[in-house]
């Protein structure tokens, strides 16, 4: 009786992996790569070492928050090897892993492109998927809405929680919005700098009341404040008159307190008369703007005028050929664009007004005096518009640019403009006063001064011409950092009393005195003082009105680039103690620090890049920088979250389930 011997070359049956660790790890031959930290570890058969790494390094275990057996979608992207294996499956059937991968990609496709879930019912889309993967059956609309999207939401949330687990400090922005179906929504975004010194924004979806009840410091939205500044300047200030029982008149007007908030305040009779004169020239400027709207409206409603303007631009050989732009009354920057478009077409419009074929615009085209007002209007508000565009960035704009920007606008940039018209001179003075009022919380706060110190472009405050005042700002910034962030130091190095980070209204106000303590301020030699005074002060240059140049440069060249620290002297340093020593090394640009081109226009934040490269030399200051430089200057991230929600819930999807909208918006904001 012969016995059947097993074949020597018979392959051992390979079972599918059942361990929970593989949702965080990608296998690559005999190596396992962690998708969380990208660390590679040798792997043979046992998962004990892999589990130990997840538990010890990332605090993840089988019973933890991140392990959910109901989740069927892949948490992280599959490896190339997995994709190759999936492509070699039997055409008659689709493996479970392949179905999971395709479902995941389908949800990504729907969310990223704001597509309706009913796409899976589209005949052409079904035909496309049948041709691409014949063995794959598309899930129905109910499966996507009730199962796949909620699962993807949970996975995205858990991945975000993993990243937030090691973050000790976050900064929040919030905003409210009403959808097309009249459902109210609230957005909360968290901002922090991760271990790689990269700025991260996440839509937390937290409860706003509980989030703000634990706040340490509240910072108003700078972009909204800037918009209010222009609104205040261009609108008439109303004066209320109240008579007491003795028949004496009292004058009241809305003015700013020391924190930039409008309050009803009593003013004198002389001040009331001055405001009445200010309202008169505001009315004259408003008349010019209204006339400009009528001119643009005539072109918008006439194809003949638009064609004639284009022909006139060709005849006059215009380098910048743009059409007239219609403004939106509620947005002042669109009014600026409208006036700028008229100024750029000044010669063409004046030439057209004398032609019989264009007689309908003869009384709408501005005269020489009105054109002069419009040109100087663009000069005055150009820097405000540039700053508005800078502050509108979602991923790069931090609070560290607010103090130098507002300080230079108030002290140098606006006052250096050469204006000829009486109306615009008055308007410029009013703009400076309103900026001082609305942004008093910035100019009078050690909090903003300290954050400016951590920006390597402005850390020496060379945009301040007065050397004594410059040294005072540096001293106040150093004291603020030491007093409020001493808890970051190791216990053995703490030498100062720890105090919590106070709200802005409780911070030390700025003094008008230019004297400073020589013992606490940064030492500057006489030769260096002369050099800084002559070569490193803000310069105001009258810019040419050329829209094409700005479009090419994307407005990267602005007045903020001119006020950054030019070059700094290297000095031999003496070591004293902990945070004070690090501040001294940072300010005096110690020889061991990695140097950067401060005038570079790279997309990456230079300050974060600097502290990442010098984190070993400046360990404590780098931690402080990760906290302060992650504070956003505006609430634009929350507003952009609502823009995403508005794209998802269109007029055709007005009956969208609010919970499903929340899922889709959260996935898109945190994944794409």
Radius of gyration: 31 Å
Count of beta strands: 9
Task: Using the alpha-carbon principal axes, give the shape.
Answer: globular
Approximate helicity band? 40-55%
- List the strand order in the largest sheet: 1-2-3
Helix/sheet category: mainly alpha
Biggest sheet: strands, sense, closure?
3 strands, antiparallel
Query: pLDDT average, as an integer?
Result: 73
Count structural domains: 4
Per DSSP, what share of the residues sits in E-state strands of 2 or more residues? 5-15%
Q: Please report the distance between the alpha carbons of the first and last residues.
A: 68 Å
- List low-confidence stretches: 1-9, 64-92, 203-215, 491-556, 567-576
User: So how many helices?
Assistant: 25
Pfam family, one: Dimer_Tnp_hAT
Subcellular location: Nucleus
Organism: Brachionus calyciflorus
Protein name: HAT C-terminal dimerisation domain-containing protein
